[in-house]
Amino acid sequence: MLSKRIIPCLDVKEGRVVKGIQFVDIRDAGDPVELAKVYDEQGADELVFLDISASHEGKKTMIDVVRSVASELAIPFTVGGGIRTLEDIKETLRNGADKVSLNSSAVQRPELITEGADYFGSQCIVVAIDARYDEPSDNWVVYTHGGRTPTEWSLTDWAQEAVKRGAGEILLTSMNKDGEKTGFDLPMLEAVQSVVSVPVIASGGAGSSEHFYDVFTKVDADAALAASIFHYKETSVGNVKRYLKDKGVPIR
């Protein structure tokens, strides 16, 4: 089993880190630069920065904030939100990101995944997928624009298409589980892992160290992302890592 990664996520709106439940009821969680510094010191394996209002409001990613956060980090840094063109990818990587996360723009124009992968390599291109379980169709439906807009894509079809286009990693968020702290959506992760060969990052639902243990041992996710339990100091990256190490999970 490869070493597992623990990844805090900074959802940023208007220069502040925020967190909601099922993509709504947003509340403030702090300064992105300060939090980035804390997570680096705590031993996070990577950091994800998502400008959650950029795609919905038609804005570009806040490059000045990205630059400030990157200056505090010694760990890999993924940035997403408002990245629509190859030039945007270039600018984001130039200003301190190690990878870019493509979501709405990739669904609207899948060629962007290929353009980024051809220019920088697949290892720099993460495709983030937000999906909600749809009972009538007994499937997960892909959403864009911060969970506001349903698409025609089913989860597994879009995951396969994204990888075929050049995605080197999938960041998979369960909209049903987001902010609920009841555990990761294991069936959803299993469904995607069964159809793609690239690493899958689990997102949505982390509420305890046990939830990380479940996602690494029951479905063998490559990495797990969390926000509110770290931001509001319910636990720390270090505590989660110690728990997992004690349980025999390989941790970096």
UniProtKB/TrEMBL annotation:
| Pathway noted in the entry | Amino-acid biosynthesis; L-histidine biosynthesis; L-histidine from 5-phospho-alpha-D-ribose 1-diphosphate: step 5/9
Cited InterPro entries? Aldolase_TIM (IPR013785), His_biosynth (IPR006062), HisF (IPR004651), IGPS_HisA/HisF (IPR050064), RibuloseP-bd_barrel (IPR011060)
Q: Which Pfam families match?
A: His_biosynth
EC code: 4.3.2.10
- Please state where this protein is localized: Cytoplasm
User: Which catalytic reaction applies to this protein?
Assistant: 5-[(5-phospho-1-deoxy-D-ribulos-1-ylimino)methylamino]-1-(5-phospho-beta-D-ribosyl)imidazole-4-carboxamide + L-glutamine = D-erythro-1-(imidazol-4-yl)glycerol 3-phosphate + 5-amino-1-(5-phospho-beta-D-ribosyl)imidazole-4-carboxamide + L-glutamate + H(+)
Q: What does this protein do?
A: IGPS catalyzes the conversion of PRFAR and glutamine to IGP, AICAR and glutamate. The HisF subunit catalyzes the cyclization activity that produces IGP and AICAR from PRFAR using the ammonia provided by the HisH subunit.
| Protein name per Swiss-Prot or TrEMBL | Imidazole glycerol phosphate synthase subunit HisF
Organism of this sequence: Halobacillus kuroshimensis
